[in-house]
UniProtKB/TrEMBL annotation:
This is S41 family peptidase. GO terms for biological process: proteolysis; signal transduction. It comes from the Bacteria. Residues 89-158 form the PDZ domain. One of its GO terms (cellular component) is outer membrane-bounded periplasmic space. Pfam families: CtpB_N-like (PF22694), PDZ_6 (PF17820), Peptidase_S41 (PF03572). Belongs to the peptidase S41A family. NCBIfam families: prc. The lineage of its organism: Bacteria, Pseudomonadati, Pseudomonadota, Betaproteobacteria, Burkholderiales. Keywords: Hydrolase, Protease, Serine protease. It comes from Rugamonas brunnea. One of its GO terms (molecular function) is serine-type peptidase activity. Residues 397-418 are annotated as: Disordered.
Length: 482
């Protein structure tokens, strides 16, 4: 395998970098399943356990061996099934609730290998300490971060409330590194933001689907309509939204569709995995008994819409995009989505541990399977005016080892072509682009979305022609080997 691209994305401390999963927490008592036990294989497992205990170079704790055996068994199934130890289970619950203990910064990886501050969260410890967008973290508690993954850096900045972490920071215009000692606090992260881009046109961004997302979305829409009661077009931005809580996706789609519309369906082995989820409060209300969407102005059901997606749009994002596309409620603009269309159910084992198990696939209202294929945009538009940049090199579900197959359609071609990736990587890095700020004046895809809403020409993607040109020599080489 060739080198893997390190994706640069927005990561809130406390939210694990990468592709989040849509979750269904099942509190229903499950009827015990008692299949015939494979006694011979279990005997071999016991034999290996005994050999490790008696012959390994140093003693190994029973708990470690058994925990790792469980983790390995679950992880062997697919990329999204996992054993959740105490720490992982706590982090998952915190992330779904939109809160975590950390510093309150959104980070990415700089071209130099340092941690780049994309933005401090308002009124967070980092914000109050004077951390600024564009700062580069070079050390965490004295440990160099160069070469450290985003996951590992996030973990080092997490911790117990009121404990401190020291950040060594390079800042443009400063001749010496700056050192900040920042105390960790519980951070409440808003998953929804929005603004009027220009008179008559609104932009709503969802960064992750959390428990408060539906309430936050409703409040933001009401606020925007108070600012301009005559909104003529709305852009729902789901780019780089890795997913999250299923109920959040149902509620967001329901906000723009007629009441009682079918939003998504699931199918798996268990009876409770064969379901259709509708745009009604019982399917999306999590935080209280009231219906947050009841406050919305009637106009939001009919306002012309665009949904922006890219390769980083996954899971719950794809549910929303797929539903709005099937009902022809919105034009989907951007690039092919990630293709994470499987349901993970959390089965609690102890008060502090659980198993996250893939139990079903997701389907759009028209019965399309999202798994390993994703949502194809109605209008394919690159991230930049002259190409899709690093977005085109991101890994998709179909690239993951042991990914669940699409049971209703042919999967998209695997994008994991090492020689092609390396050439495109060089082309993209030569441009030395600064990180894109969604919703800014430099946001090319947003500009094309506004053009579409206004009936103006949209600049479609050049990606396909570039792929053909760069891939042609490799294809010829492969044919000559046969």
């Amino acid at each position: 395998m060739g080198k893997k691209l390190k994706n640069t994305g927005l990561v809130g401390l406390g939210v694990i970098a990468g592709i989040a999963v849509s979750l269904q927490f099942s509190a229903m008592a499950q009827k015990p399943v008692e299949p015939a036990l494979p006694l011979e294989e279990l005997r071999q497992l016991a034999d290996v356990y005994g050999l490790i205990k008696s012959d390994y170079v140093e003693p190994v704790e029973d708990k470690k061996l058994l925990t790792e055996a469980i983790a390995g068994m679950v992880a062997s199934l697919d990329p999204h099934s996992a054993y959740l130890d105490k720490k992982a289970y706590a982090e998952l619950r915190e992330g779904s609730q939109g809160k975590f203990v950390g510093l309150g910064i959104e980070i990415g990886q700089s071209e130099e290998g340092y941690i780049k501050i994309v933005s401090p969260i308002e009124d967070s410890p980092a914000y109050r300490a004077g951390i600024k967008a564009g700062d580069l973290i070079t050390r965490l508690d004295g440990t160099p971060v160069k070469g450290m993954s985003l996951d590992d850096s996030v973990k080092k900045m997490r911790g117990e409330p009121h404990t401190k972490v020291n950040l060594t920071v390079l800042r443009k215009g400063e001749t010496e590194p700056l050192v900040f000692a920042i105390a960790r606090e519980e951070i409440h992260q808003k998953s929804v933001k929005g603004k009027l881009i220009e008179p008559g046109y609104a932009w709503l961004r969802i960064s992750q689907f959390q428990e408060p997302t539906v309430d936050d979305l409703a409040a933001k829409i009401v606020e925007l309509y108070k600012q301009d009661p005559n909104i003529k077009g709305l852009v729902l931005d789901l780019r780089n939204d890795p997913g999250g809580v299923l109920q959040g996706a149902i509620g967001v789609a329901a906000a723009f569709l007629p009441r009682d519309s079918a939003i998504v369906s699931t199918n798996g082995q268990l009876p409770d995995s064969k379901q259709i989820f509708y745009g009604r409060p019982e399917y999306y209300a999590l935080r209280n008994d009231s219906d947050a969407l009841a406050k919305l102005p009637d106009a939001v059901k009919k306002v012309p819409m665009v949904v922006l997606v890219n390769t980083g749009s996954a899971s719950a994002s794809e549910i929303v995009a797929g539903a709005l596309q099937d009902y022809k409620r919105a034009a989907i603009i951007g690039t092919q989505t990630f293709g994470k269309g499987s349901v993970q159910t959390i089965r609690q084992l102890t008060p502090d541990t659980a198993v996250k198990l893939t139990t079903a696939r997701y389907y759009t209202p028209n019965g399309r399977s999202i798994q390993a294929k994703g949502i194809s945009p109605d209008l394919l538009v690159d991230e930049n005016a002259d190409g899709d940049g690093l977005n085109s090199l991101r890994t998709r579900e179909a690239d993951l080892d042991k990914h669940l197959s699409n049971d209703r359609d042919q999967e998209g071609a695997k994008t994991n072509r090492d020689e092609l990736e390396e050439q495109l990587r060089v082309l993209a890095m030569e441009k030395q682009r600064k990180p894109l700020e969604y919703g800014s004046g430099d946001d090319f895809q947003l500009a094309q979305a506004l053009n579409h809403l206004k009936g103006l020409p949209v600049q479609l993607a050049k990606t396909e022609s570039k792929l053909v040109q760069v891939a042609a020599p490799a294809a010829k080489k492969d044919l000559s080997k046969k």
